[in-house]
Write a structure and sequence with these properties.
heterodimer; A: Ubiquitin-like (UB roll); DNA polymerase, domain 1; 2 domains; five-stranded mixed β-sheet; 16% strand; B: alpha+beta; Uridine Diphospho-n-acetylenolpyruvylglucosamine Reductase, domain 2; Uridine Diphospho-n-acetylenolpyruvylglucosamine Reductase, domain 3; Enolase-like, domain 1; four-stranded antiparallel β-sheet; 12 helices
């Protein structure tokens, strides 16, 4: 049995029309069919958070969705966070400057999670940040620098918002 | 030996590597009637709501359905409203929408407190009320809240709609009282009077984990601070949430103090408890004496403070 369907999906602003097997997860579709391998797969049962993407602007675990469910929807993966190939997103800059990653495997899921979190909560406390990333497993950093990077990113994003408000 | 999935599953042409769920037919109906029709005509079908429990089970091949019926396009199953003194929530309402609903915060602050401990932001964005109630994990927060509120479950099947009192909903371990042709369409949570005390506390190893044991407390006190009504619910003790009826009765007429709660809640140590990899039964029984006490004290303090927060 290899039931397939035609879907149209927007990923990082680009529209794709693809045929997908109905049992393929969104994560495998992104990685294997669209070759967007920035989305990582750790546990594949919704525990590690590495595969987090933004689905219509809301963070979701792409291993817990079927590709066919993305039909007509808008997805942002880690490849789509930076404004262009030369410029990092302030969140990415903050992670680089604060040593918020070591091996980097969990980073795509953490960045996508935090994009939504900092939009919902632009001025978080350290405790808020720790709860926000509680669904993302990192085995390198001990989370300390991830938390610092996030608080720094929040500050940068607030400054950016202020300066955009002035212009 | 490397086996390609096309070798294993006999799929032709396009092979999608890394595919985990077993083969199934996919259905995406748009009305409840179509869902009932599919449930009636198809064998071995599974309903897919938010997917935060079914998808892991599919990925790990714990379940092997021939048909997956996706509820995400069904109209009319996502709502939060107040009717006849109860909070009504549709089956496909996302946990996120419950978390951020002003109506929920007002009508069931207990649910609001509990839902912040359900999984993580990424799972609450997809996870639904109906999915959680039907999956019926013994320590799921929303299941415990439904027991605490004496919720009524609405169900639709080929013989029409019916209501089930939540107390009769769990038939056993992760087994809801649904017929094969039925789906849960919503649940109704009778509101407690304004100014009631509430608290949801749980013990889990990490934030977002399922609770090992959880406790939900709802209380009403009169002007003299005496308890006039109480609901005390424990999750994670057995296959379904337990209402601590003896404690609820013992609380009536009492003025809450920590020592008095300590005495009253000690009887909960006698409750039967499951014994598993997460905790032995005796540990859960210890938690059963501690967590309701903490929840009741917090509920009482909230009444005292006069400002639910």
């Amino acid at each position: 049995m290899s039931e397939a369907r035609q879907i149209a999906v927007t990923v990082n602003g680009k529209r794709y029309e693809e045929t997908v097997l109905v049992r393929v997860t969104l994560a495998d579709f992104l990685r294997h069919q669209l070759r967007l391998t920035g989305t990582h797969l750790g546990c594949e049962h919704g525990v590690c958070g590495a595969c987090t993407v933004l689905f219509d602007g809301h963070s979701a675990r792409s291993c817990l969705m079927l590709a066919v469910q993305a039909d007509g929807h808008d997805i942002l993966t880690v490849e789509g966070i930076a404004p262009d190939a030369e410029t990092l997103h302030p969140l990415q800059e903050a992670f680089r400057d604060n040593h918020g990653l070591q091996c980097g495997f969990c980073t795509p899921g953490i960045l996508t999670t935090l994009i939504e979190f900092l939009r919902d909560n632009p001025d978080p406390t350290e405790r808020d940040v720790r709860i926000a990333i509680s669904g993302n497993l990192c085995r390198c950093t001990g989370y300390q620098n991830i938390v610092l990077a996030t608080l720094d990113a929040a500050k940068r994003l607030r400054a950016q918002d202020r300066s955009q408000g002035e212009t | 030996m490397i086996l390609k999935c096309c070798t294993v599953f006999g799929t032709e042409s396009k092979c999608a590597p890394g595919m985990k769920p077993p083969p199934f037919s996919y259905h995406d109906p748009q009305t409840t009637a179509e869902v009932v029709g599919l449930l009636t005509s198809l064998d071995n079908a599974k309903l897919l709501a938010g997917g935060q429990s079914l998808m892991p089970m599919l990925n790990m091949r714990f379940v092997l359905p021939d048909h997956v019926i996706d509820l995400n396009k069904v109209d009319g199953l996502s709502y939060i409203r107040e009717r006849d003194g109860a909070l009504e929530i549709g089956a496909m309402t996302r946990q996120r929408d419950i978390e951020f609903s002003d109506l929920v915060a007002r009508s069931s602050p207990l649910m609001r407190e509990a839902i912040q401990q359900v999984g993580h932001r990424q799972t609450r964005n997809r996870g639904t009320l109906g999915g959680s109630l039907c999956h019926l994990d013994p320590s799921a927060e929303l299941v415990t809240v439904a027991a605490a509120h004496d919720a009524t479950i609405s169900v639709t099947g080929k013989n029409g709609t019916r209501s089930i009192a939540f107390a009769d909903f769990p038939l056993g371990y992760m087994t809801p009282a649904l017929e094969l042709d039925e789906l849960l369409t919503g649940a109704s949570f009778p509101s407690w009077p304004a100014g009631h005390g509430y608290a949801f506390v749980e013990f889990a190893r990490r934030h977002g984990d399922f609770a090992i044991v959880s406790a939900a407390a709802l209380i009403v006190e009169d002007a003299n601070g005496k308890v006039t009504r109480a609901a005390v619910t424990l999750g994670g003790m057995g296959p379904a949430p337990v209402r601590a009826r003896e404690v609820e009765q013992a609380l009536i007429g009492e003025t809450i103090t920590e020592q008095r709660l300590r005495d009253i809640c000690e009887s909960l140590r006698k409750l039967e408890a499951i014994d598993d990899i997460h905790a032995p039964a005796s540990y859960r029984q210890q938690l059963a004496t501690v967590l309701p006490r903490r929840a009741l004290l917090k509920a009482h303090e909230r009444i005292f403070a006069g400002r639910p927060s």
